[in-house]
Amino acid sequence: MKIDNEECGVCEDCIDICPEEAIIKKAFKVEINENKCDDCGECVDICPVGAIYDE
Q1: Cα distance between residue 53 and residue 55, in whole Å
Q2: What is the largest CA-CA distance in the chain?
Q3: Are 53 and 4 in contact (CB under 8 A)?
Q4: Which DSSP helix (H) or strand (E) runs through 14?
Q5: Whose CA is closest to 53, among 14, 4, 12?
Q6: Helices (H), strands (E): how many in the chain?
């Protein structure tokens, strides 16, 4: 999974829903720890602006 930080509004919905706790907020952006992410897609479904996508 990837995050387009230019589109992301840092609402933190993806952080709250991630079952693997693979998404974290750093400064004014959100990052996905690819080592923890299991590509479940829950973050893609919850993102209100479509900033998260599958590579």
Answers
A1: 6
A2: 25
A3: yes
A4: helix 13-17
A5: 4
A6: 2, 4
DSSP strand pairing (29-32 vs 23-26): antiparallel
Q: Is the pLDDT of residue 55 over 90?
A: no
Question: Are the C-beta atoms of residues 39 and 54 closer than 8 Å to each other?
Answer: yes
DSSP character for 47?
-
Share of the chain above pLDDT 90, in %: 93
Q: What is the pTM of this model?
A: 0.88
Average pLDDT over residues 22-36: 95
Q: Which residue has the tokens 């998404």?
A: 23
Query: Which residue is associated with the tokens 């996508």?
Result: 53
Phi-psi region of 29 (alpha: psi -120 to 50; beta: other; left: phi over 0): beta
